[in-house]
Design brief:
The chain is of the alpha/beta class. Among the domains are: 25-133 and 266-370, Isopropylmalate Dehydrogenase (3-Layer(aba) Sandwich); 395-494, Alpha-Beta Plaits (2-Layer Sandwich). The protein contains 14 helices and 20 strands. The chain has helices at 2-26, 39-52, 66-70, 79-88, 107-114, 171-187, 205-217, 230-239, 251-265, 302-314, 318-333, 353-362, 411-419, 464-476; strands spanning 28-33, 57-61, 90-93, 119-125, 139-145, 155-157, 163-165, 192-197, 224-229, 246-249, 272-276, 281-285, 336-337, 349-350, 395-405, 427-433, 436-439, 451-462, 481-490, 493-494. The radius of gyration is 28 Å and the shape is elongated. The chain binds nicotinamide-adenine-dinucleotide. Nicotinamide-adenine-dinucleotide is lined by residues 38, 42, 95-98, 108, 269, 284, 287-290, 292-293, 299-300, 303, 340.
Length: 502
Amino acid sequence: MQNLSSNFDSFTNFNQHTYIYIMAEQLTPITIAYGDGIGPEIMNAVMRIIKAAGARIKEEVIEIGEKVYLSGNTSGIGPEAWESLRRTKVFLKGPITTPQGGGFKSLNVTTRKMLGLYANVRPCVSYAPYVDTKHPSMDVVIIRENEEDLYAGIEHQQTPEVVQCLKLITRPGTEKIIRYAFEYAKQYGRKKVTCFAKDNIMKQTDGLFHKVFDEIGAEYPEIEKEFWIVDIGAAKLADSPEVFDVIVMPNLYGDILSDVAAQIAGSVGLAGSANIGEEVAMFEAIHGSAPRRAGQNLANPSGLLLGAIQMLVHIGQGDVAEKVHNAWLKTLEDGYHTYDIYKEGVSTQKVGTKEFADAVIERLGQRPAKLKAVDYSQAKEAIKVKLKPAKPSQMETVGVDIFLYHEDRNANKLGDALKKIEVNGLHLTMITNRGVKVYPDGLPETFCTDHWRCRFKANNAITYKDILALQTAVTEAGFNIIKTENLCRINGVEAFSAGQGA
Ligand code: NAD
């Protein structure tokens, strides 16, 4: 009997250990940061909900934000935090307060860039009639390129009158975001991907974005594709968002329009977002730390919860994500609303952060009756984008744009002087001021600054030595060069813009 019992004990012990071992194996490590202001309250609520729903996660907590900033670290994030992020590769982030004053760098921009989080994914859905909106059937996902464009942060003052910000659009960066958008549409059963850009004006940069959209879109015949110039596209989005499904855009347009889309859906307080990289991904609410609401059990945890739902799908726990999301929809539908969305006649109870979380937990396993329930059965794993190897290109230099700082505003005088300089076939073909052609044959009405772009071209391919020789000649003639840009032909096609009016 004793033997049997001890055998039984060791059997249960074995099973318990095995069970614990398997459990530990199945738990996905994630990094969380409570953040500042309302951050700790909403993070507590979110963790309580997703754990009650059975999220198979094991969290490491890191300290980032205000405390770290004020301790003298201007990036707001320390080495242990980076280590945790690089180890777990999944980050659920509470909102951060960026201290006022110079020197503090945006933690969001730093994290996105350092970890290569190239895709910002922001679903913007309306929940009418439970949340007030003019667009009751809106269900748009904005996919914003997150690393490039004017956000490369390369800015220079070039002359006393002129500053410049470099807009960088790369082929691999564009291929990644466009392919991500189509893969996202496929995985989430979306029917259409729309691209917004401004390639009627920026023919090289936005032109590349549009071209890559057409190239990659052709590989997804089952998905409808459309392209809008961003200005009229933005107007259409603000007016009739229901005609859009997934929209992919370069960084700046995406930054602006994803906030517009979240706001017109009902509230920026109700949107979550994912920042996806090849290795690491970060999930958050789109709102900030709302310091005035902190510590009062007032804040709505929904934005962060929707970010956490995106995280659960990303780590392959679509079953838990679906359970949480549907319970959350049911809670909204049952009228349990925090102060920010509370409305007499629609809401049934004004609740605090904790009570809202309790109401969601009580509804786990339920589905909404009127709002559209979610289904994540197709979203089994994180979207991985594979780049195709670059095609070899033939690149030759055929000229150079020399930028001058020149105080005298007489374009003809400047042009006539530069016309006399010819080096190894490189000769002046035009001068522009702020992109408008002012020589030869400029208009006297054109306003000129102290910043001149002087284009020298040759009939044949040239070398950088020819450009250096030209720069020497221009400098010796008494002109003040501030920068140069090579003019290239790629695979026989001129890869630079013409001057306006040229
Ligand atoms: P905010 O989004 O923090 O707050 C604006 C207003 O929206 C608040 O006053 C509050 O009334 C409301 N609000 C926001 N979130 C809410 C919620 N969950 N529940 C209920 N009401 C909510 O914007 P802000 O006041 O401009 O910025 C405050 C701080 O947050 C700043 O330091 C800013 O830099 C930072 N911020 C951080 C992030 C981030 O970490 N991702 C994003 C935006 C702003």
